[in-house]
Amino acid sequence: MRILFLAAALILSPIEARAQAVPPAPGPADRAVQPVAVPTVAAPPAPLAVTARLETEAEAMAEDAAEYARQFGVSQPEAIARLTAQNASIPVTDAIAEHYRDRLAGIAIEHRPAYRILVSLTGATPVPAQSIIAGGITLPIVFRTGARVTREQVIWAMTNHQAALRAALRTPPGMGLDPRTGELAILIGSADAPAGTAALKTRLEAIAGVPVQVRVLNHVDVNLAPEGGSRVEGVSPADGRRYLCTTGFTVTDGIRYGVTTAAHCVDDLVYRDPQAGSTPLPFVGQWGWGYRDVQINAADAPLPPTFYADTARTRLRPVTGERGRASTRAGDFVCHRGERTGYSCALVQLTDFAPAGDLCGGACLPTWVTVAGPTCKGGDSGSPVFSGTTALGVLKGASYRGDGSCVFYFYMSVDYLPPGWQLLKVPPLIQPLPAPDVPVSSPAGTMPGGYDPAGER
Question: Tell me: the pLDDT tens digits for 75-86?
Answer without folding.
Answer: 999 999 999 999
